[in-house]
Fold this sequence. Notes:
Blueprint: H1 4-9, H2 20-26, H3 38-51, E1 56-60, H4 67-82, E2 86-90, H5 93-105, E3 110-111, H6 120-123, E4 128-132, H7 133-136, E5 154-157, H8 160-170, E6 173-176, H9 182-196, H10 198-206, E7 212-214, H11 217-222, H12 224-233, H13 238-241, H14 244-247, E8 254-259, E9 262-267, H15 276-279, E10 283-288, H16 296-301, H17 305-309, H18 328-331, H19 337-340
Helix pairs in contact: 2-4, 3-4, 9-10
Amino acid sequence: xxxxxxxxxxxxxxxxxxxxxxxxxxxxxxxxxxxxxxxxxxxxxxxxxxxxxxxxxxxxxxxxxxxxxxxxxxxxxxxxxxxxxxxxxxxxxxxxxxxxxxxxxxxxxxxxxxxxxxxxxxxxxxxxxxxxxxxxxxxxxxxxxxxxxxxxxxxxxxxxxxxxxxxxxxxxxxxxxxxxxxxxxxxxxxxxxxxxxxxxxxxxxxxxxxxxxxxxxxxxxxxxxxxxxxxxxxxxxxxxxxxxxxxxxxxxxxxxxxxxxxxxxxxxxxxxxxxxxxxxxxxxxxxxxxxxxxxxxxxxxxxxxxxxxxxxxxxxxxxxxxxxxxxxxxxxxxxxxxxxx
Length: 341
């Protein structure tokens, strides 16, 4: 039988598209999808021409201008160019589903985690993996820690300010009052807490959920070995297991707050170096709204001052701010439909 493909193209595979605009135009999109918007074209053109070789990049766009599609096209471009896995991180499951729905409409092949497992389509660099920040940043992540981390070529973090909050929650140990480690820790730091306020400490002992006291740093450092022993015994409990592998060796660099209802232990800075899939990704794009303060990204995500000071924005944009929705009838009952029209 004659192989006509070999006759037509000499047996060579067609080169994969790298220009994100061309990727979009060639994608098998839904019939109701139109052309890229001017703001999307402006951002993608500058990224492709001047920014795609950077390690870190912040893209700032207003809500509703299509950041998700930009992120997906950037990842598809890097995946086609390098043949390395591409990762799209969302702050919650709802945004994961929205992103997957948009990707399907725009003809971009994506996958997601099922039962916590990493799909081969991602590791084989066949499809973009869309998942939550919680799946990536925890002490027992399927992406691996340290030298065992999965390789990621390019990564997009959507709504990165919200992701920072999720990362903090995942690297923090919260022990409720009924947890086996609560009372032993309270007993260790009781004398130091009493010195801050005997009455306040008495309320903590009584279980007042509104009352709390910080453990003094000198007391925390002095007793860190005892704290390690108590937490290690509870390392398999749900309250401890997700953060323990991350902070067990940096307890001296943690804060501890004790209230009547819980004890919270959190590092001063998130131990991002544990997450090799994140720190070693060759190209990282952080999606941000135009009104947010990006200085938080230095401490929260380990970004450089240079990355913070040089975000990618639509240069043709003439306004900056958040949208406000006003409902006239709630302002004044006389403002009915007829009057508004």
